[in-house]
Prior knowledge:
The protein has helices spanning 2-48, 68-74, 94-97, 123-145, 147-157, 172-177, 307-320, 434-442, 448-451, 467-480, 495-509, 526-533, 584-595, 605-617, 647-660, and strands at residues 168-171, 181-183, 193-200, 204-206, 221-231, 243-252, 260-267, 270-271, 275-277, 339-345, 349-354, 357-363, 375-380, 382-390, 421-429, 455-463, 483-489, 512-519, 523-524, 541-548, 574-583, 622-626, 641-642. With 669 residues, the protein is of the alpha+beta class. Helix 8 runs parallel beside helix 15 (647-660) and helix 11 crosses helix 14 (605-617).
Amino acid sequence: MKRGGGKLETYMGVTRTRSVQILALLGLLYMIFMTFEVPFVFKSVSQDTSGVSFQNDAFVRPQQLDSEEEMQEKEAPIRPLKEPLRASSVSPKPQRQMREYKTLSGLVFDWRALDSTEKDGFSGLHKSAITAFQVGEKLWEDLKSGKIRIDVEKAAENRTETSCPNSVSLSCDEFTKKGKVMVLPCGLTLGSHITLVGKPRIAHAEHDPKISLLKDGDQSLMVSQFMLELIGLKTVDGEDPPRVLHYNPRLKGDWSGKPVIEQNTCYRQQWGTSVRCEGWKSRPDEETVDGLIKCEKWIRDDDSNTEESRATWWFSRLLSRPKKVTVDWPFPFAEDKLFVMTVSAGLEGYHVNVDGRHVTSFPYRTGFSLEDATGLTLKGDIDTHSVFAASLPSSHPSYAPQRHLEFSDRWQAPPLPSGPVELFIGILSAGNHFAERMAVRKSWMQHRLIKNSKVVARFFVALHGRKEVNVELKKEAEFFGDIVIVPYMDSYDLVVVKTVAICEYGVRTVAAKHIMKCDDDTFVRVDAVIKEANKIPEGSSLYVGNINYYHKPLRSGKWSVTYEEWPEEDYPPYANGPGYILSSDVANFIVSEFEKHKLRLFKMEDVSVGMWVENFNSTKPVEYVHSLKFCQFGCIEDYYTAHYQSPKQMICLWNKLQQLGRPVCCNMR
């Protein structure tokens, strides 16, 4: 028994030894095979995938990077925050040179060769362009060198921060000296309240009333009204501040012929839907604000509330003693009578009390926050005795425009695709519109067609008059990779140059089939816009938008146009500026004529494009496609584009589009 067991153990030991030797041999052979095979495999993959683009992968990384600079270029969209983006100086690849992200616009404007004696009265605008590009050229060089950044940092060190008082009070004289503006340094917060003591003036005659129309034969109308407004003083410099709350008691002169109170909001001169309180109590089924109705009842002129009826009411009350007593009060404001009005910030909206009685409540609207209300103004027919603001926020919110930027990789633009794209969207923006650009990035620029680079979107910005804005703008451009800087000093009259730059980028850098222009307060339904453009047969020239026909220039007023600026009596057909689409051949024509200094410039950007399309139409037919869904003012049902949308409204529109699967407005116009 023992001998048999020993033989078995000897046999098993030899078997195990041979198995280990065989496995070791196989492992050695595998290693030799991989040593010779791996370089061949990588070489084959590298050759097979050259020149091929993928839908989900932006590009195929090469086996070896030539330099640190090329490494920076290839690893987009992760762009450096502090180090400026620059082109590689090491043997660039010609076929990719135009496909890489460039901070500076490639538009050629040789102002030295421009003829300043141009005819047709347009030399003035050309001279403005020459000056703007001269200043911009110097400013851009200083910006690149870092000189401006150093100056801005020194200025920031010496700047003192404004304190946040718990309350602010102004007497009549103080309020008048400040231009009837009370500054609220840190805005409002929940529970803040403002009290105004004032006296409406006696009605006066107006020959051109703004709140009513003159009846036939009447030369004037008796008017008495005033406006209390909470405004955003620190939103954007150089623009009309948004009206967070517009409160307008109209004692006399309203088109209804009755005393009314009108409440509203306004963003970039675009008013929302007004809430009018006309003396009727809000319906029981109407939504309330913090449990309070929007409009209280007051005695109207057609109510039978004479002294005799009121005496009868008191007598009946004494006799019957009802369980619930209701009192009808007159309109809360009267000519030449003192009143005390308090505006308080609740959880759901503003509440207005006059002489201790609740009068109106106005719900907060999307896009307007309490902290944005950094000023109070008073206009119209009123004598102010004093103004008080109390329970103000104690902490200091940052009002620096760039505070809205979120430097996260999530919001960076995808790299440009290797081939042509279906649609390029150029977004006009101002240097200090940091909040607007961030809202666009976080809303419709998250569309799948943009994320997979079938559609490309870029902001087009000129240089700003404030150095610190340009420093932040350059930093923003380098990180997000979605800003193209047109190197001239920005101004309203030269917005048209940025439109030409959009055409240049869309034709030469992106090679897009269609080029769309919109504003940074325009919400775009990307898929709907592409479908609208694709309704036109392939190869046709097109001009799509909300097109105006037979419009005439205004010869007086704020937006007047002189005969020197526009000699003709009519404008050509033109699409409204907030959103329109051009085919690539039309865009190429615009760029070519501009660089030859043959393009006629006009300060109204949308009219200019209509003029250029009309010129192109004389050589090749253009399909004009008109649609009201490219909304000029606000938002409409089933919109393609919605204009005058605040940053918060942009996010709201995007959320509704994602949640509901269909376009729904946040604040209807």
